[in-house]
Specification:
10 strands; alpha/beta; five-stranded mixed beta sheet; 339 residues; binds 5'-O-[(R)-(carboxyoxy)(hydroxy)phosphoryl]adenosine; 11 helices; binds zinc ion
């Protein structure tokens, strides 16, 4: 089965074609960074309007790149939540209209299930069961994954998501939106020994996380110094080290507690090079395998939605007539696909 995937949950328009027999055939992402940069964050209404503008062209491009005609597409998957409702509704309406016109089933996909399954798009995909660290702009979760649709949240952030903390600290550092990659680039030039930030919630048992205190710590450190380039780079490095270390500690704890043999990392912060390297080292020490998607499939994209959709559409899933986009949607509500 060949599935067209559409992602419009936030500020990236992603479209892809995934084929159950041949893998990912084509994917394209349009980033709205330029639109939102002057506001320092995502403006939901502008995001929705740009998705409307971009989708038709992107779909045409991806169909051509994958050498697919509409008759080759057996189903359409679109992100139905969680995310910005207006933005989600654009992909939902567009995806369902295409499916109706083509006479194929449509299915709303959970955005975090997309992230969670993204490593399956790589050569040598992980085998079930595994531990997933989902680190995006809206979520930071440790998930026990039994199979597609069988998810147990083992721990999650009690406040800010890791990506949100990256973005907020980047703003404090005077970096442009989107902050995560900019902060990581600045941290490259930082001295790891100058400041030491706390590793939140690592001194007590459990797998929950907290990142909002690091933002305050960064603010307090910043007001104490010169704010020149060197000082800002040192603060960026201390912050990044604290996030990476905290995630490593919690993932190690989760691997030991569950005995799961494999770790996967996905979501935008999963593109962070220092995090990828540190988690790979830790997993090796714990005797677990580690997989993560290439960075462009860690951040939002249509490929993960096409893949997750295919896992459900192929065994026959199809949405009822009534549909809606969901700003909030717990991953644990999902069920395995009907076989
Ligand atoms: O998964 P994603 O593309 O969108 C959401 O579902 O939220 O994640 C976006 C988040 C943003 O907070 C962004 O700053 C962060 O991922 N991010 C990074 C890096 N690349 C993206 N954070 C740290 N280092 C990076 N290299
Ligand atoms: Zn995402």
């Amino acid at each position: 089965m060949r599935v067209l995937g559409i992602e419009t949950s936030c500020d990236e328009t992603g479209v892809a074609v995934y084929d159950a027999a041949h893998g990912l055939l084509a994917h394209a992402v349009h980033s709205q960074v330029d639109i939102h940069a002057e506001f320092g964050g995502v403006v939901p209404e502008l995001a929705s309007r740009d998705h409307v503008r971009r989708l038709p062209r992107l779909v045409r491009r991806v169909l051509a790149a994958s050498d697919s005609r509409p008759g080759d597409i057996g189903g359409v998957a679109y992100t139905a939540g969680p995310g910005l409702v207006g933005a989600l509704l654009v992909g939902t309406a567009f995806g369902r209209s295409l499916a109706r016109a083509w006479g194929v089933p449509a299915l709303g996909v959970h955005h975090m299930e997309g992230h969670l399954l993204a490593p399956m798009l790589e050569p040598d995909p992980p085998a079930f069961p595994f531990l997933a660290l989902l680190v995006s702009g809206g979520h930071t979760q440790l998930v026990g994954v039994e199979a597609v649709g069988s998810y147990e949240i083992l721990g999650e952030s009690v406040d800010d998501a890791a990506g949100e903390a990256f973005d907020k600290v980047a703003t404090l550092l005077g970096l442009p939106y989107p902050g995560g990659p900019a902060l990581a680039a600045l941290a490259q030039r930082g001295d790891p020994g100058r400041f030491r930030f706390p590793r939140p919630m690592t001194d007590r048992p459990g797998l929950d996380l907290s990142f909002s205190g690091l933002k305050t710590f960064a603010l307090n450190t910043l007001v104490s110094g010169e704010r020149d380039e060197r000082f800002r780079a040192d603060v960026a490095r201390a912050f990044e080290d604290a996030v990476v270390d905290t995630l490593v500690i919690k993932c190690r704890r989760a691997l030991r507690a569950t005995g799961l043999p494999a770790l996967i990392i996905s979501g935008g912060v999963g593109a962070n090079r220092r995090l990828r390297a540190a988690l790979a080292d830790m997993a090796r020490e714990e005797g677990a395998t580690v997989s993560y998607p290439r960075p462009e499939l860690c951040t939002d994209n249509g490929a993960m939605i096409a893949y997750a959709g295919c896992c459900r559409l192929a065994p026959g899933a199809c949405e009822p007539r009534r549909f809606g986009a969901r700003a909030r949607w717990a991953l644990e509500e999902l069920k395995p696909p009907d076989g």
